[in-house]
């Protein structure tokens, strides 16, 4: 029962990330606010699970005991500084409440790290299998959404702008930050499920689409972060360095191929659009009034209402 609860924490965290990365949970609330509300609901659940079982409580105390005292002092000082800064810079009662809520959320994140580490200590490999499989699902689902957006936009003669895509994030860089720490560990998926071809296919597809999003959004910092994490893994884990490097190289090469195909398709559509515009006879009304750009209404109807923010008419 204790191991099941510990693995349940991985399911809750992975499910939260998968849900908030691929689904619009509220039509009127800002994406950032929805995620924060869900986090405030998720943290008490994690802490309740850890406190429910004596074995998990002991594992939590063990993880807390491993933290150096000087680091705890620094954490407390930073939290105190956050509270003082919130009060000093508050312009209204509401702004003070928001600032204190953010400081509290950061404090909960620190405690949640220890709680998750305790669950990993108890559940072992089963925790890793569930957590990394769900991370791969997140990367695969988001990458598939981006590719579908590109296909739909190009089929309608519109240009897809990946740098302002990723509709379920307030800004693409927020998802790139998730990729910075999730992409390196996804390469371990075949190692956690040895002898299962489906795990290799799943891993390869997730890394290919993940690297595609990195390239399409121009996330240079994310690419550097993944490279540094991979270098650290190669040094710390020499026994699996070939597998980690091999899978990342496979994903990068596949992503470059996908991105290249998207660029070629885009250029072909630009040429086709220009040639069609030149072949169409001009009417008197068209000479008097400049041609208006193609409306985004068709793209909005096909891709969803929010897609109109990153689809524009193709131009030569």
C-alpha termini separation? 62 Å
Q: Total number of helical segments?
A: 13
User: What is the helical fraction, as a range of percent?
Assistant: over 70%
Mean pLDDT over all positions: 81
Strand order of the largest sheet: 1-2
Radius of gyration: 24 Å
Beta-strand portion reads under 5%
Shape, per Cα inertia axes: globular
Order of helices and strands: HHHHHHEHHHHHHHE
- Sheet bearing the most strands, described? 2 strands, antiparallel
- The secondary structure category is mainly alpha
* Unreliable runs: 286-316
- Count of extended strands: 2
Number of domains: 2
What topology does this entry show?
Blueprint: H1 2-22, H2 31-52, H3 54-65, H4 69-89, H5 93-123, H6 125-155, E1 158-160, H7 172-186, H8 189-192, H9 197-216, H10 220-236, H11 241-279, H12 284-288, H13 297-303, E2 311-313
Helix pairs in contact: 1-2, 1-5, 1-6, 2-3, 2-5, 3-5, 4-5, 6-7, 6-9, 7-9, 7-10, 9-11, 10-11
Keywords:
single chain, 316 residues, mainly alpha, 2 domains, 2 strands
Mind explaining what this structure looks like?
This protein is 78% helix and 2% strand. The protein folds into two domains: 1-123, no CATH class; 125-316, no CATH class. The protein is built from 13 helices and two strands; from the N terminus they run ααααααβαααααααβ. The protein has a two-stranded antiparallel ribbon with strand order 1-2. The chain has helices spanning 2-22, 31-52, 54-65, 69-89, 93-123, 125-155, 172-186, 189-192, 197-216, 220-236, 241-279, 284-288, 297-303; strands at 158-160, 311-313. Helix 1 (2-22) packs antiparallel against helix 2 and helix 4 (69-89) packs antiparallel against helix 5. The longest helix has 39 residues, at 241-279. The radius of gyration is 24 Å and the shape is globular. 24% of the residues are buried. It is an all-alpha fold and 316 residues long.
């Amino acid at each position: 029962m204790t191991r099941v609860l510990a693995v349940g924490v991985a399911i809750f965290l992975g499910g939260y990330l998968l849900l908030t990365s691929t689904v619009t949970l509220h039509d009127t609330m800002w994406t950032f606010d929805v995620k924060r509300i869900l986090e405030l609901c998720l943290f008490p659940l994690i802490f309740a699970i850890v406190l429910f079982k004596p074995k998990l409580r002991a594992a939590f105390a063990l993880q807390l005991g491993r933290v150096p005292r000087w680091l705890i002092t620094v954490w407390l000082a930073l939290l105190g500084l956050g509270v003082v800064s919130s009060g000093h810079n508050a312009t209204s009662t509401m702004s003070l409440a928001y600032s204190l809520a953010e400081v509290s959320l950061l404090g909960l994140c620190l405690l949640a790290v220890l709680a998750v580490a305790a669950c990993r200590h108890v559940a072992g490999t089963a925790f890793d299998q569930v957590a990394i499989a769900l991370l791969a699902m997140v990367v695969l689902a988001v990458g598939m959404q981006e590719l579908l957006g590109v296909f739909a936009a190009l089929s309608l003669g519109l240009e897809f702008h990946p740098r302002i895509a990723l509709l379920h994030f307030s800004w693409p860089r927020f998802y790139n930050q998730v990729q910075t720490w999730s992409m390196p560990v996804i390469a371990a998926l075949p190692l956690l499920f040895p002898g299962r071809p489906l795990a290799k296919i799943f891993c390869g597809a997730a890394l290919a689409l993940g690297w595609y999003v990195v390239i399409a959004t121009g996330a240079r910092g994310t690419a550097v972060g993944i490279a540094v994490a991979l270098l650290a893994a190669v040094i710390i884990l020499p026994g699996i360095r070939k597998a980690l490097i091999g899978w990342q190289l496979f994903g990068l090469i596949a992503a470059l191929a996908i991105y290249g195909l998207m660029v070629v398709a885009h250029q072909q559509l630009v040429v086709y659009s220009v040639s069609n515009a030149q072949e169409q006879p001009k009417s008197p009304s068209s000479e008097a009034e400049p041609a208006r750009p193609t409306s985004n209404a068709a793209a909005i109807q096909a891709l969803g209402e929010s897609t109109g923010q990153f689809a524009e008419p193709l131009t030569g």
